[in-house]
Amino acid sequence: MSEKKDVHTALMKLYAEKRPSDLLRLLQSGYQGHHSDTVDTLQTFGRFHALAVYYQQARELDKSFTIWSRLVNKEIEDESFDSLGLSYFSDVLCKTTDATLLLNYAPVVLEKDPVIGAQMFTKRFDSGIQDKRLNPESTIEFLTRFPEALTYYLEHLVLSANQQVESFHSHLAMVYLDNLFSAKQLNNKVLIESLRKKLQSFLRQSDKYSVSLILGRVERDDWLLPEAAILHGKAGNDSAALEILVNELKDYKGAESFCVNQSANKTTTIERQRLFETLLHLYLSKSKDNERMRVYVIDLLNNPKAVFNAAKVAELIPDDWSIALLSKFMLNSVRSSLHDGRQARIASQLAYWDYFLANKDYLSLRSTTISLTDNKRCESCHQLFKESAFVRQADGRVVHISCAKT
């Protein structure tokens, strides 16, 4: 055994000095050299990456991670590590089964590259590794001091892994808001626009976040009125959303789009009509001596996706408006009413015909007689009938009651 240690140690010294490209292969292939000589030699020749691998093979992971973290931070240099760098260290950390070590050394990666750092945790989540210290809740708390990494991790949970957990969705919405406020302080208009689109898209698409929680944060700042309108819509408060879009933001096209989108979630025609009538009321309240608003009113009435009760619209429109302005709307309303009437009559006639055919079949069955003689056999088990009771099945077969049940 001593000779083997001597041979391995001698090879290690040779490779460390003359053939560093073969050094890692030696250390990873059952190397059994003298420990103190190995450490001293690798340090002397600056083979720090090889030393970290040696400690890793010896299960002294804390020492390995310390060396790699120093290499990443450029506290020590080793050209054999330069091509591996941060990605290599993050992969090694990700694969460790020791959660304490991962949490101790993860900040080294997170500070250098938040995305690569966050991926250490998303990969572990996707692999299904169970560890209470690294469950999503604990990981979110740990990543709080790394905002970019936290955003990446939450997006992975919610958007990629499709985790339908309210706290995750609410936390992501809050993180988007924090990022937006930070961009505003920097006055970075391009970043503000990008983050705002991302936030608004998430608020529209997700149904899992706490609307009241996010709305409470958004309503503190008039700058976030578009987001407040989305949240009021999510809460079912259509009137408040339309008030913001029409009176505060003057976003008339956005108001119509809001009604079209919200109407898809309404279960009855009356609810859809009430929604569009609310917008019509707001338009009309601003239309007096305002030709531009009259155009918006007419465009709304003529929108093929809008749903109105023509009689109620006629009551709401001011008396001094020209009939010509409403001619297209009234014509479409009449056509729609006639179409609905024809559809209803056709449906009624089809239902009557179904009833007629069913009743015909019923009467036909009632008029049919079945003769049960002593030699009549069950058409299922082929045994004689011992009782007068039987079942006639839909296909006309006569069987025992017990056979019909099976």
Give the topology.
Elements: H1 2-17, H2 23-27, H3 35-44, H4 48-57, H5 61-72, H6 79-82, H7 85-95, H8 99-112, H9 114-127, H10 136-143, H11 147-160, H12 166-186, H13 189-205, H14 211-218, H15 225-234, H16 238-248, H17 252-263, H18 269-285, H19 291-301, H20 310-316, H21 323-367, E1 391-392, E2 398-399, H22 401-405
Antiparallel strand pairs: 1-2
Helix pairs in contact: 1-3, 4-5, 5-7, 5-8, 7-8, 7-9, 8-9, 9-11, 11-12, 12-13, 12-14, 13-15, 14-15, 15-16, 16-17, 16-18, 17-18
What share of the residues lie within helices?
Answer: 55-70%
Instruction: Please tally the β strands and state the result.
Output: 2
Distance between the termini: 78 Å
- What do the pLDDT scores average to? 89
Major β-sheet profile: 2 strands, antiparallel
Strand order of the largest sheet: 1-2
Q: What is the overall shape?
A: flat
Order of helices and strands: HHHHHHHHHHHHHHHHHHHHHEEH
Strand content: under 5%
The SS-based structural class is: mainly alpha
Number of helices: 22
Radius of gyration: 38 Å
- List unreliable stretches of 5+ residues: none
Pfam families: Vps39_1, zf-Vps39_C
Protein name: Vacuolar sorting protein 39/Transforming growth factor beta receptor-associated domain-containing protein
GO cellular component, one term: membrane
Organism: Bugula neritina
